[in-house]
Amino acid sequence: MDLRQIKNILKEFENSKVHKLELSNDEFSLKLEKEGKTNNNISSSLVPAANTAVATEDVSTAAPKAEEENTNVLVKAPLVGTYYESPSPESNPFVSLNQHVNKGDTLCIVEAMKVMNEITAPVSGKVVKIHVKDATMVEYGEVLLEIEA
Length: 149
Description:
CATH 2.40.50.100, 2 domains, four-stranded antiparallel beta sheet, 2 helices, 22% helix
């Protein structure tokens, strides 16, 4: 299965009412689970993703602590794709640590299905943390950067 097919599955899963999905074959395994209340009407061909459920619980229990301590603005991925810190491999990154950015400045690019989506700063402030490395896959809602407003 190629990356394009996986992206299509992710998009369809996100838009569906299915809560949990597990696909596997000899080459790979894919487990998906949506946050929120469970759907008891899952078809028999779908298997609950136990590993994903554990990760979801860890994130939900850690989130309140992070909100209390961290007042930085979290810039999250608006879609699943590949994170790029610069417009091309030979170019300088859009932003670096401790750099001041203005609202609307381009922070990075998330590429999905050959479309380059510019991620812009929601507020003016200083970039205090970059959570992902260049040319890595990011999930929907994954924190990419933190801005101290």
